[in-house]
Write a structure and sequence with these properties.
Layout: E1 17-25, E2 31-40, E3 46-53, E4 59-61, E5 66-68, H1 71-80, H2 83-93
Antiparallel strand pairs: 1-2, 2-3, 3-4, 3-5
Length: 94
């Protein structure tokens, strides 16, 4: 995945930041927009969940399935998830 966080200020702990990821193609007609909602919890760990925005405006989201002691560790776990895993995650929410 090519998404990388670009910030000019430090985030406030607990304030989620939304990052757009490359779209997910399910078929020739259906493309799902993906976002990653990243936040730092009270203990200082980083957590993130996937949001899928459908063409009709509906949003589906996972629980906080990505975690890391640092923000870099969190993004490393996001990049390890392949396209077919993303597709399976989305289909499990439908």
């Amino acid at each position: 995945m090519t998404a990388w966080p670009h910030r000019f200020t430090e985030p406030v702990p607990g304030d989620p930041v939304l990052h757009e990821l490359p779209p997910l193609r399910l078929s020739d007609q259906l493309t799902i927009t993906r976002y990653l909602r990243v936040r730092q919890d009270d203990a200082g760990d980083w957590r993130a969940r996937l949001l899928f925005l459908e063409s009709d405006g509906r949003t589906r989201e996972t629980a906080d399935i990505f975690t890391g002691a640092t923000e870099a560790e969190l993004w490393q776990s996001v990049r390890r998830l392949h396209e077919h895993h993303m597709r399976a995650l989305y289909l499990s929410l439908v």
